[in-house]
Write a structure and sequence with these properties.
about 65% strand, about 70 residues, mainly beta
Length: about 70
């Protein structure tokens, strides 16, 4: 996954949780068999807008939920 953009105003959506808008896409992937021959290759997917709720605890950010802003086709 490649993150193209992130935006937040660091407003709490609930205690110690913050809403973040992110835009990500899945880069090209290659799947290989055990004998090292190529099994499947996927193309880069389109960028999707997601909304993430994150919390900062124990010195690290953690995603609580991540949902698409629009339905996939």
């Amino acid at each position: 996954m490649v993150v193209e953009g992130v935006q937040t105003k660091f407003i709490e959506s609930s205690p110690a949780e913050y809403q973040v808008l992110i835009q990500v896409y899945q880069d090209t992937l290659s799947y290989y068999r055990a004998d090292k021959t190529l099994d499947e290759k996927t193309e880069r997917g389109p960028a999707n807008g997601d909304i993430m709720v994150a919390s900062y605890t124990g010195g690290a950010w953690r995603a609580v939920t991540v949902e698409h802003l629009a339905k996939s086709r």
